[in-house]
Amino acid sequence: METCYSIYAQIASIPVGYSNPSLLLAATSPEMASSLINRPALGNFPSHDWAEILETGILRVAPKGLNQVFTGTTGSDANELAYKAAFMWKRQQERGGASADFTTEEMSSAMNNQSPGSPALSILSFKSGFHGRLFGSLSTTRSKPIHKLDIPSFNWPQAPFPMLKYPLEAHHSENAAEEARCLAATEEIITTWPLPPAAIVVEPVQSEGGDNHASPAFFQGLRDLTRKHNILMIVDEVQTGVGATGQFWAHDHWNLSHPPDMVTFSKKAQAAGYYYGDAALRPNKPYRQFNTWMGDPARAILFRAIVEEIERLDLVRNTAAVGAYLYEGLQGLQRRFPREIENLRGQGQGLFIAWDSPRRDEVLKLLKTVGVNCGGSGERAVRLRPMLVFQRHHADMFLEALEKVIRS
């Protein structure tokens, strides 16, 4: 294979191909130049066109039921901001609403990192999850020890995430029991952890932690638990969001009775932040959610161009169709080489496909020798993260390269 191509896409962050002409046009526009050289401190001095940039881009593709956004700079930042919003929401509820003022004791104790100003609350995450590398997000990250070693952490709980058996159709009862077990354990933690959770945070697919999937019923169960116990549901769509799973947002596959409280995003959006719908999640006073930049108009302009390109080329539908074609091809290889492709997963999830390999690291190295840059996750998983412009002929090229590696 003479041409080198990537089905990893800068760790799932390139949406519509390298040097895309439409994005280049947006990047070289006078609007972009002005945003780059006159970057505003958005919390104090938003640019005159900031609201329009948001309305025509980021908010245009807001998840169902979430019509507001708080912008940030990275995926870790997006999750940290969502956690802060959850804590402020919970304490505001306990205080009696947005109009209730802070007490002298709250303000003085906060300066000493003590309760009640620094409350004994937590964020519940899931085993093998990944949510970032800043202090709060790192305390919810459970994928690899190397991320967490030597870093002090909060005493925040982790619940088990379902470890499903494949193929799904052959293990329906076992997988249902596994998801029920995890939901029961989650509820027990919510009700007994000494630092009560203000929110749970969960990925639609645990990407860094091994490409672990769960059924829509599991996520529906999580949503029911959060509403039952009056805590928030944060869906981390940093890696799954913006079309890769055959839906613009992966949680659209779940058919929730109520939308998540917050959805975080970054990577393919080339911007970052969290969507929300409840006005009670807005900070009730200035500077509570704040930093110098609070996002970046230049990146928001780029995301708007990405959205327009996705719509122009119907790329979400493309990922669903090409993903189904690629999955079928991988099933064929699995039937022929069952010891090389184990636990194939991601059916019906667009291009968000993975499998376990007993010689994963060797496979990834050998793929590079035949011109393919691919990725791994967890201990044994090979994960595919093609760009949204991935086509059937690209799938054929990859399947040919993979078979060559498997035979070697």
UniProtKB/TrEMBL annotation:
Cofactor entry: pyridoxal 5'-phosphate
Reaction equation(s) it catalyzes: 4-aminobutanoate + 2-oxoglutarate = succinate semialdehyde + L-glutamate
The UniProt record lists the keyword Transferase: yes
GO-annotated cellular components: mitochondrion
Chain segments annotated as transmembrane: none
SUPFAM superfamilies named among the record's database cross-references: PLP-dependent transferases
EC number(s) on file: 2.6.1.19
Biological process (GO), any one: gamma-aminobutyric acid catabolic process
GO molecular function, one term: pyridoxal phosphate binding
Similarity comment text for this entry: Belongs to the class-III pyridoxal-phosphate-dependent aminotransferase family.
Record NCBIfam families: GABAtrns_euk
The protein, known as: 4-aminobutyrate aminotransferase
Organism: Aulographum hederae CBS 113979
Origin organism lineage: Eukaryota, Fungi, Dikarya, Ascomycota, Pezizomycotina
